Amino acid sequence: MNQSQSYLPGMQGDVSRGNEVQQGKAKMAGVRDRGELHVHLNGAIPAPIIREILADESTELPPGFLIERDLLRNTPCHSLASYLTPWQALRLFPKKRENLDRISNAVFASLVENGVRFVELRSSVLYLAHLQNCSPTQALEHLIESTRNAAHRHGIRRGLILTVTRGDYGAVCLSTLLQAYQDLGEPNDVVGLDLAGDEEIAYPSELPSLFRKAKDRFGLGVTIHAGETGRVENVQAAVELFGADRIGHGTAAGKDPHLLDKLVTQDICIEVCPISNRLTGAVPFDEAHPLQEFRRFGVPFVICSDNPAIHQRGLADDQTIAIAEGLTASDLDQQYEAAKRYSFIRDLD
Ligand SMILES: [Zn+2]
């Protein structure tokens, strides 16, 4: 199968087509209900809003960063580092509280256009605290309020997933986030914990047990970005050490039948992000997407969008491309129920 022909239609369009794509999505809305379990808040902000906020906050971009070249990733990248270039700018805002509200509103409007009925949004609260010059507790409170209002306005159920970044400070970050969560009375707006970041670097040895303890004590769901850079041992660690309920990407698991069996036995869901996987190179163009192996083994999976605005696409496009990657029409029909089943949000109707 020629991958570039099988699913690239529309993917290599130039940036100026963005509005047409958005309008196309709007027409698709209502056709299919969707649940979104893996989307990063700052990867879901439409480019025009990013530009407005950068201007409003007089943000100084890093040397050599060109908005026209570096803000979006809608063609395959040569490396994961190249794919992550937009975050050099995305981590510099919002400094103003009202701009967080602008972001929330724009993100939920995009979700509505994609037929999303419920979403688990993940975000780094510690970055937000740094940017907004407030405590982690205040930043979490801002995030809860802002996304709660936007979700209500757009008629979407939402839960928040708190993201911890891999690396030396992972355990400190998790403890700080959990303290903020407790300070606010363990609000049910927060539904889960996520580990993200560079899979090649180590994390403190106590981090996995801290995730498990948080899961046991607070009933939070655990999802771990793992196996995106080919490290099958990271998927194993997510399952065996972190007590993961879901795996973000998990592409490396596709080549390990024993691990696939374990995912089935333990009913662990993989958050499959087809567009992201091709753009980052997690799945090379000359290889089939492991989605086909997940299906063959009966591993639970949910199609997700990861960073839709950076891709200039949305969950509807990810589902379309998943068909090109081996999903059947019947699988697609079951996606909404699968998202409900594996969601950390309680009482979805
Ligand atoms: Zn992700």
Descriptive report:
The chain is of the alpha/beta class and 349 residues long. It has a single domain (12-342), classed as Metal-dependent hydrolases (TIM Barrel). Helix content is 48%, strand content 14%. The protein contains 18 helices and eight strands. It has helices at residues 3-7, 18-28, 47-56, 67-70, 80-83, 87-90, 97-113, 125-131, 136-154, 170-183, 207-218, 232-240, 257-265, 274-280, 291-297, 308-311, 315-324, 329-342, and strands at 34-40, 116-123, 157-165, 190-196, 221-226, 246-249, 269-272, 301-303. The chain has an eight-stranded parallel sheet with strand order 1-2-3-4-5-6-7-8, with helices on both faces. Helix 7 (97-113) runs parallel beside helix 9 (136-154) and helix 8 (125-131) crosses helix 9. 47% of the residues are buried. Mean pLDDT is 92; it is low at 1-30.
